[in-house]
Amino acid sequence: MPRRPIFVVIAWVALICAAAAQTLTFPALTGRVVDEAGLFDAATRAALTESLADFEAKTTDQIVVVTLKSLQGTSIEDYGYQLGRRWQIGQKDKNNGVLLIVVPNERRVRIEVGYGLEGTLTDAISKFIIETSILPRFKVGDFAGGIKRGAEDIIQVLGGDAEEWQRRAAQNSSPEITRPDANTSIWPAIVIVLGGIGLLIFCATVGGALCQTLLQILFLMLLFGRRGSSRGGSSWSGGGGSFGGGGASGRW
Questions:
Q1: Rounded to an integer, what distance in angstroms lies between the CA atom of residue 125 and that of residue 154?
Q2: Could you give the count of Cα atoms lying within 13 Å of 152 in the half-sphere of its Cβ?
Q3: Degrees (nearest 5) of the Cα angle 230, 233, 236?
Q4: 248 forms bridges with which residues in the sheet?
Q5: Contact of 78 with 68, CB cutoff 8 Å
Q6: Cβ-defined contacts of 195-202 (< 8 Å, 24+)
Q7: Nearest-angstrom CA–CA distance, 100 and 92
Q8: What DSSP character marks residue 93?
Q9: pLDDT digits (tens, 9 = 90+) for 166-212
């Protein structure tokens, strides 16, 4: 049985590598409040969106609130900075974006801070906001209230009260703050690439109808199953900002 042309194998490897880079799926950036978990009523969502839009108009800092149904098996730290980079929250020349991420089903919350704001909205301040303003409300089931208060505190810090918040955070005993481990987060991609290459080698060597079917299934999975969306349904978008894992997380 003739072997498959080498360029076909190369094409399949490229597709597998592309899929490995997208092992997480992301919701579409539909506005300044992306409520995938359904925590807000229409009035609360509109008021929060207006507050974030007004702050951006004054400072150019972009703050986005996002609630998620699942972290898809990864840590909130890993998901957070990848989401920030995918959405490109913040201005490209300032990297002044912030994400407030809430995953109620997994009881996790995170403030993800863009490169340009790490010196103002520090890890310690982010942790302080989570522990004193957000988590107490979450623990009694007030998700909308906790998110609203957290967003207000972030706006206060970035609006010029950073020194006072830093003093308050320093007085608070802060536990260890976790940042994403790039070496750990890359392993799922490596496993996918190696597994795909192994399948290609097997099919190129053995051939047969079964391999053709497996390759067709793999192609459909790569094409439709694992593509995260970063745009859609809104005239507003991120400004090209980037993230490096700054911020803090909490659980309740």
A1: 9
A2: 10
A3: 75
A4: 111
A5: no
A6: 196/12, 196/13, 196/16, 196/19, 196/20, 197/13, 197/16, 200/9, 200/12, 200/13, 200/16
A7: 19
A8: T
A9: 999 888 755 555 555 545 555 555 566 666 676 667 666 666 666 66
